[in-house]
Amino acid sequence: MNNHTSLLDAIHATGLEPPPYLEPGKFYRFPGHDKGRSNRAAWCLLFEDGQGGCFGDWSTGLMENWHPQREKSLSDAERAALKAKVERARKRMQQETHQRHQHAADRAQRIWCHCRPTPADYLYLLTKQIQPHGAGFYKGSIALPVIDFNSQLTSMQFITMTGEKLLLSGGRKQGCYIPIPATQNAQFTHNLTGWPSFADYAESAQRIIICEGWATGCTLAEAEPDTFVVAAIDAGNLMAVAMQARACLPDAEIIIAGDDDRQTVGNPGTTKARAAAVAARALLALPEWPDSYPDHLTDFNDLAVWQAGGMCHE
Fold first, then answer.
1. On the CB side of 201, how many CA atoms lie within 13 Å of its CA?
2. Mean pLDDT of 34-58
3. Residue 72, pLDDT above cutoff 70
4. What is the pLDDT of residues 234-291, one digit of tens each?
């Protein structure tokens, strides 16, 4: 077995799917764990001499060093050389990632400046029975700002009328959130002078609710108008957002409103919400389903729509 194949086997063992061939000295990006084909969170590098490499997944925090098995253990000099190669690869990867994030942030700002308010009669809003909450509208889709805890626009999420969701390619999501102002404060604005800080958003709120999806967040904001709601976009980002929210507001009442993925093995929505609540010293809230409700419903928006007589599922 050659070193190229050995590195691929090591990557496959982590559940990732790298490209079938690796050219020495070239960085490769490919989908992260459980991500779609367009995702580029995972990466790998086979060193130019073929005697080592490294790989990782930005979406999970994975980073592994690899070197081929050999009869003799590495000498101190060889170990030091391998460490230096890994460090150079790490810095190169960080630089590339920073450039990719900055490019996406610049693009997000340009797009946001061309947005207009989402019409209240947009099909997705009607289906979900929610208000726009200051959402933008771009090329026929809802356009949502993704911002970090330094009040910087990092990316955008787009939602079509049928509920298809797309994140801006290359944008930074980890630890970032979509703010959902209460209905009475939800005016569309281009924020040309900058985005409010997390503390500014939460200043007049009695509590903070962190959920996964934007539609769920809108439902919660409408039910709890004195609450500042943020959408972490997915379950895997709940922990990072909750921890930063707690660091920003140490004494605030924070509630993690999790999804109940009852039909998915391991129930990732509830599992990750519970872990985030424990880590951030927050409360946990989950939908309570009457016996007559179908099992495919998973979140607070599903619950609200079904209670209102609709049959919606995101």
1. 27
2. 85
3. no
4. 999 999 999 999 999 999 999 999 999 999 999 999 999 999 999 999 999 999 998 8
CB-CB contact of 189 with 118 (8 Å): no
Residues of the domain holding 148: 117-307
In a domain, 250, yes or no: yes
Q: Does the predicted TM-score (pTM) go above 0.85?
A: no
Inter-helix orientation angle 300-307/214-223, to 10°? 60
Asked whether residue 79 is assigned to any structural domain, the reply reads yes
3-state secondary structure 196-207: CCHHHHHCCCCE
CA pair distance 233, 235, nearest whole angstrom = 7
Q: What amino acid occupies position 269?
A: G
- Orientation angle between helical segments 268-279 and 238-248, nearest 10 degrees: 20
- Is 119 strand, coil or helix? coil
- Domain count for the chain: 2
